[in-house]
Every structure is written in structure tokens, then in C-alpha cells.
TrEMBL record:
It comes from Halocynthiibacter styelae. Belongs to the trimethylamine methyltransferase family. One of its GO terms (molecular function) is methyltransferase activity. GO terms for biological process: methanogenesis; methylation. It is an enzyme of class 2 (transferase). Signal peptide: none annotated. This is Methyltransferase.
Length: 502
């Protein structure tokens, strides 16, 4: 007598097909590129220009501790202006590792930064969201939670981040507590650290130590935090305070000039790169005064400026060329580098958004970028994150991952046999090779007939993205955390929250 069929079996199978568990992609080890635009003379020319800027014009460190540190190290310090000789600069950055491992609390999600490796990181810092119905509104903590959840469920998003949006409903002194706690508990992937203040940076390191252990954090990278230079040629106190905290703890930072080409830098790819290289290397050199050998990342955030309105432009040619040059210079200095992509000045996930997004990603990956920030969701010149675009961008990251993985080893003799067997006028749909090696498919793109698309609701990409965002959030599964870690983390946050709100 056969056993009775289990109830719900068909429903479970349907659910498994329509809501499959993520298959996480590893660190992208690029087999395509990088492109080198410059010959050796061109690289040397930009290097000399960057060194000349640091030696003659100098750079301001608007922080008394940093100024004292530079003076003790032997730099020329006049007021807040620091001039750094090229020999000193090159000696300091020579201790920055070429690559490092960025650990996640789930070891299966750990990634590598540097060399031929690339990772994708979440959007960062938008004050607005475009909601699941497309409505633009101020961002809230619930949105940050949602983007952490989407980052956790994304197959290609390696770093859910720390500040996918600015939660306007949380007081600033407490904001970092809520965000770091959420990033550590809603995801088990690598995260960034808060740079809101020195206190926020210290709290972030402490929370990481609770989860990973103090000794592990001291000897391994568990955070990579984003610090912006004020281009042109200013490192301010808030950023430098955070840099000291993270460098002392052996945690790298993305030392990133925020470039508006034609406004904050010359309207010249070579001149702009020379300036931003000088700025980033100065921050990197200072980190080595704090803790020699601490990993750091040469960072850039490059936009053009509209000569019509002065507004930022994304996806334009010159920033793409600049990213290619920055990549070549990072390889010259033997340091990892970071850039921004997948962003647009458009106010909806429309054709302009698609063009800008693609045009900003290709040069960054072809330039060999190691740490790619803003990899999904940005609209409105990085002021807003769209749920629909986030999901669509995340699917595109899988395409980029596949492309830059490059060609696979193939048995051409077996394929010749298939061609002979199929013969003229046949097809290859039923061959073993086709079944075993299907072409990559983006399941959010519609390639059906017009009639079928129309019959199924004529859904445009924004609608499809919002539907998919809802589906992912409905099926989100929170990764487990040991009870003792979670208890200690909750206790720390509760104590600090009470202290900062008093």
C-alpha cells in the first residue's frame, strides 16, 4: 500500500519555483580588461603632476591633531596647509597592501578587494526614496531596513552597506546606532562603517568587535568606510577624526575626492585625475602615519557638470575616461581603488536612467575597479533611491558579473560533433550542450511577443521592478545570529541610545 501524498507538496514546489533561494555570486574575478589608456610616459606625467600639487600647492588638513602628526612626520606645515615631498609620500603609501580580504559574519559571504577582484556595494546616503508606488518622499529607517533586506537577498550585491538612505525619522546622534545594528542583524554580508562623527566611528568599531571579537577585528578587515575629501584640496576635521579611528583599528577607508569635473576640478580628464590622485594619496599617506600597513583604498566619485545649469551629470564621456585613467594610476601605485556607478540625473527609472546607469558602469569595470559603490538604485543625481530601479540594477549586476567572468573552457571537438549532427536547417535547442550551458537570462526583462506582453498587463520596467521588490521583501529571510552576540549588540545599542538621547 502506497503512502498517502503529503499535503502542500505541489504548493511548496510552486513556491520554490516562483521564490527561489538566492544563489550568491562570489567576488568577481575579472577576466576581461583592464583598459590602459595611457602609455608609460602618460602615467609618469600624471604622477608628476599629482606630486607637484602636493609639493607646491599643498593640501589643507583642517584638524589640529592631523597637523601635529604631519609636522612630526617631517612635512612642511604652514597653518592648515600641508606640503608633502614626493619621496615622503611614496614611502608612506608603499606600506598600503595591494589587496585585502573583507570579512562577513557569514564566512561564505566574505569577499576580496584589490588586484583583479571587483565587488558591488549598495547605494549610500540618499535623503529621498522613490517608494514602491513610485512616490518620492523623505527616506525613513524602515527604508534603510528594506534596502538592507534587498541587499541580503540580492545574488550580486556583495556589500549591503551602512547608509543606503539617510533615515530622516531618526535623530542624528542616534542614527549610526540604528544603521550599524540593522546592517549587522538584517544581513550577514560585509558592511561599511559610519563616518558621521568620531563617536559614530568608535561605536561602529565596538559593535564590530562585539560580533567578530576584538582580536579578530584588530588583525582582519570587517569594515570598509567611506570618507570624502572636499575637492579641491581640503580634508576636514570630521573625516580625519573617523580616519584615525578606523586606521587605528586596522580597518580601511575609501578615501574619495568628490569630483564635479569642470567645477571642483579642471574640465580636463588628465588635470582632474592629477588633482584627485593628489587628494586621495594624501589621505592614504596620513593613514600610514596612524598605523603603518593598514589597508586603504584610493577612492573617487566622479561626475560631470552641466554647462547649462551647473547640475551634476552622470553617464557622460569624460568621467568615464577619468575612471579608466584612475584605474591605471591605482595599478601604478599598487593600491586598490573605488568608484561610483549605476547612477543617473533622471527622476524616474526611464530610458535616460538606463543609459546613464550603463554608461557609468562600463568604464568603471573596464578600468579594473575593485570596490564599486552605488551599484543599485540611484536617481536624481544620487539624491534619491528607487525601489524599482534598485531591483532592476541588481539584476543587471548579475549580467556584468557574467560578462567580466569572461570565456569558459569549452570542448570544441564536441561542439563540432553537434554541428555535424544538427546539419543544415536544424537547431541546437535539444543538444546536451545547450541544456547544460544555457545563456544567462535576466528574468526581469521581457522578451515575449507584443501580444503576450499586452495580455499580461503591458508592464513597463518600473512596474516590474516594484513588483519584484515587493516579492523579495515578502520572502526575505533574516540570517541567524548567535544569541549571545545579538544580546550584547542589543545591550550596547540600548545603552548608547539612552546616553545620546539624554
Amino acid at each position: 500500500m502506497s503512502e498517502p501524498r503529503k499535503r502542500g507538496g505541489r504548493a511548496n514546489r510552486v513556491a520554490a519555483r516562483t521564490n527561489p533561494a538566492p544563489v550568491y555570486l562570489p567576488t568577481l574575478n575579472r577576466a576581461v580588461g583592464p583598459i590602459d589608456l595611457l602609455g608609460p610616459e602618460g602615467v609618469e606625467k600624471i604622477h608628476n603632476a599629482a606630486m607637484t600639487i602636493l609639493e607646491t600647492t599643498g593640501i589643507e588638513f583642517r584638524d589640529p591633531i592631523a597637523l601635529a602628526d604631519w609636522k612630526r612626520a617631517g612635512a612642511d606645515v604652514q597653518g592648515e596647509r600641508v606640503r608633502i615631498g614626493r619621496d615622503m609620500l611614496m614611502d608612506l603609501i608603499s606600506s598600503v597592501p595591494e589587496s585585502y580580504t573583507l570579512h562577513a559574519r557569514n564566512g561564505d559571504r566574505t569577499v576580496d578587494v584589490g588586484g583583479k577582484n571587483s565587488i558591488f556595494a549598495n547605494a549610500y546616503g540618499a535623503p529621498f526614496v522613490y517608494d514602491l508606488d513610485g512616490t518620492r518622499r523623505p527616506s525613513q529607517l524602515a527604508d534603510a531596513h528594506n534596502f538592507f533586506k534587498l541587499g541580503q537577498m540580492s545574488q550580486a550585491m556583495h556589500v549591503p552597506g551602512i547608509l543606503p538612505v539617510e533615515p530622516q525619522d531618526i535623530p542624528v546622534p542616534e542614527r549610526h546606532l540604528e544603521l550599524v545594528h540593522a546592517a549587522l542583524t538584517l544581513t550577514d554580508k560585509p558592511i561599511k562603517g559610519s563616518v558621521l562623527s568620531e563617536t559614530a566611528a568608535r561605536d561602529t568599531v565596538k559593535m564590530a568587535q562585539i560580533v567578530f571579537g576584538e582580536e579578530f577585528v584588530d588583525q582582519n578587515v570587517v569594515l570598509t568606510s567611506l570618507l570624502n575629501c572636499n575637492t579641491p584640496l581640503v580634508w576636514d576635521e570630521t573625516m580625519l577624526e573617523s580616519l584615525r579611528v578606523y586606521a587605528s583599528a586596522n580597518q580601511p577607508c575609501l578615501l574619495s575626492p568628490f569630483v564635479l569635473a569642470g567645477a571642483s576640478t579642471p574640465a580636463s580628464p588628465q588635470g582632474g585625475v592629477a588633482l584627485l590622485i593628489a587628494e586621495s594619496l594624501a589621505g592614504m599617506a596620513y593613514s600610514q602615519i596612524i598605523r603603518k600597513g593598514c589597508p586603504m583604498v584610493l577612492g573617487v566619485a566622479i561626475m560631470g557638470v552641466s554647462m547649462k545649469t551647473g547640475a551634476p551629470m552622470m553617464g557622460s564621456p569624460e568621467p568615464g575616461l577619468m575612471n579608466l585613467i584612475v584605474g591605471q594610476m591605482a595599478r601604478f601605485y599598487k593600491v586598490p581603488w573605488r568608484s561610483c556607478t549605476m547612477w543617473t540625473g533622471s527622476k524616474s527609472p526611464d530610458l535616460q536612467a538606463g543609459y546613464d546607469t550603463a554608461n557609468s558602469m562600463w568604464p568603471v569595470l573596464l578600468g579594473g575597479c575593485n570596490y564599486i559603490v552605488h551599484s543599485a538604485g540611484f536617481l536624481e543625481g544620487a539624491l534619491g533611491v528607487s525601489y524599482a530601479k534598485w531591483v532592476q540594477d541588481s539584476a543587471q549586476l548579475e549580467n556584468f558579473h557574467r560578462f567580466f567572468t569572461g570565456l569558459q573552457e569549452e570542448n570544441l571537438d564536441a561542439l563540432l560533433d553537434d554541428i555535424a549532427n544538427v546539419g543544415p536547417g536544424g537547431h541546437f535547442l535539444g543538444t546536451d550542450h545547450t541544456r547544460e550551458h544555457p545563456l544567462h537570462m535576466n528574468m526581469l526583462q521581457n522578451n515575449d511577443s507584443f501580444e503576450q506582453w499586452e495580455a499580461e498587463g503591458a508592464k513597463i520596467a518600473e512596474v516590474v521592478g516594484n513588483i519584484e521588490a515587493k516579492r523579495i521583501l515578502d520572502n526575505y529571510v533574516q540570517p541567524p545570529m548567535p544569541v549571545d552576540q545579538r544580546g550584547a549588540l542589543d545591550e550596547f545599542v540600548a545603552k548608547k541610545r539612552a546616553e545620546y538621547s539624554a
